[in-house]
Amino acid sequence: ERGHGPYQPHEPGYGLYQPGHSPYDDQIPDPKSRTLAIENAKAYLLKSSTTSGLNLYDHLANMLTKILDEQPTNAVDIIENISKDVKWAHFQKKMDTLRDEHEILTTFEAAEKRKALFLKENGEGDEELEEEIGETPLPNVMETAFYFEQAGIGLSKDESYHIFLALKKLISVQPIQTCRFWGKILGLEMNYIIAEVQYHEGEEEEETEEEAVTEEGAKWVGEVEDEEEEKEKEDESPKSTYKPPPVIPKEENGTGANKYVYFVCNEPGKPWVKLPPVTPAQIVCARKIKKFFTGRLDAPVVSFPPFPGNEANYLRAQIARISAGTQISPIGFYQFAEEEDEDEEVEGGRDTYEENPDFQPLSVAEMVDSLSAWVHNVQSILKQGRCVWLNPLQKTEEEEENEEEEKAEEPDELPQELQQEIGPPLLTPLSEDEGIQNIPAWTAQPSTNLIPQYAVAVLQSNRWPGAYAFASGKKFDNIYFGWGHKYSPENHAPTLPPPVQAEYPSGPEITETRDPTVEEELAFKAAREEALATAEEEEDEEGAEEDEEEDD
């Protein structure tokens, strides 16, 4: 065993037995040299760092002060951490009397926006539970998300649940009879979460009356302005005889392309905004353009041909087009009413149906193997922009009486007859859909091939990428996640502007005469002077003859 021999250089006690430091040394060191050594050591410790500007003396003093104040257990084991804390506190920004501005995380902002979704309103409790037990227009978004998740389609569970709560908030505010999560359209700045609803009977009629009143008021104001303009321009240039084509009116609320009402919001928790009804002109123009959504409903739509409206109208037109082409259901789930089969026949075909109580669902294999097992449950939109064709030349009785007077003045103008458009009837099988060149209109597949007895039939639209449908037993649903654009095998080519109008045909009646030469001008002046001179002579002679007659 090693004794208490001399310490090695790496040991803490090294130097105690050096001359002048040994406790057994009788020689006392010089106090001046000891003081000088202490001052040199302190000066070395007070030497500032060229990197941080600190010195070791103050740092050790602050560390010891912190250790003595806090007295942590096993201080020797955390001495490195204490050193880091002391340095960090030294470089921390001192705000004096000003308050620190804490950084707001994006997750905190999102939680604040969705905080209202988790709060119950006053009075909610047992009554709400009783209502939930009965029939409610609130759709089971989480159940639908579960089925779509089997095929790898849908949103995260958190976002689906937030949408679930947002739809519940919408139903508590609006008098809604049916509600469905339509889907999500992506935008460059923000996205659109879309809810498809139907009002209770009588609620929508009030809104239509208000719209009609505003339209009549606008027409009356327009007529007054036209009369004033006509009075001002009576003595001005002649008016143009061009008559623009008649405006095709929109379909009434609750019918055709305006059968459903749509509410949108950018994120769950933000207020829902109701989209305006769609017009045929907006649908026709939306087919000719291709624009990305920004996420702002009031954003202008800059395109050619010019779109009649802003982004809210363009979004509503695209929703109508997507719904008409991708809303499907298993065959036999819906049926036409028996009363309408014999008695009632609508011009554009039947537009209503009802659920079949005797529906027997097909197997997943049958739903996947044949597209005839699926049918369209939304009316198709004609080229006119309506689901039911309307003759724009057909006038009302008052308009016919007014036109009879105009025809008496202009009997040569005869209206051209228009050919009625007829689209595919409601509940048409998907097997009759036209493909896109060599691509079928739909792709059907099971959710899994490993466990076919628990698989779900999933359909994907190739014409509208992002549109999906599932069927499992008696349950089915449709959803859309995409940019709101229709697939085209070729690049989008904007509509070219119309050709430049031709110049007016030149003729002798409008041809400008050439300028006369100097000789012609002098000859003209001479002839004019001679004519004036002869005229004066004739007048003088006539005056002399009259004077002679008076004298006689």
UniProtKB/TrEMBL annotation:
Protein name, UniProt field: RSH4A protein
Acidic residues composition bias: residue spans: 202-214, 223-235, 397-415, 535-552
Coiled coil regions in record: none
Keywords on record: Cell projection, Cilium, Cytoplasm, Cytoskeleton
One GO term (biological process): cilium movement involved in cell motility
InterPro entries (UniProt xref): Radial_spoke
Gene: Rsph4a
Domain of life: Eukaryota
Pfam families registered for this protein in UniProt: Radial_spoke
Lineage: Eukaryota, Metazoa, Chordata, Craniata, Vertebrata
Ranges for region Disordered: 1-25, 202-251, 395-417, 492-552
Species of provenance: Phaetusa simplex (large-billed tern)
Keyword Electron transport tagged: no
Broad class of the protein's primary localization: cytoplasm
Biased composition (Basic and acidic residues): 511-531
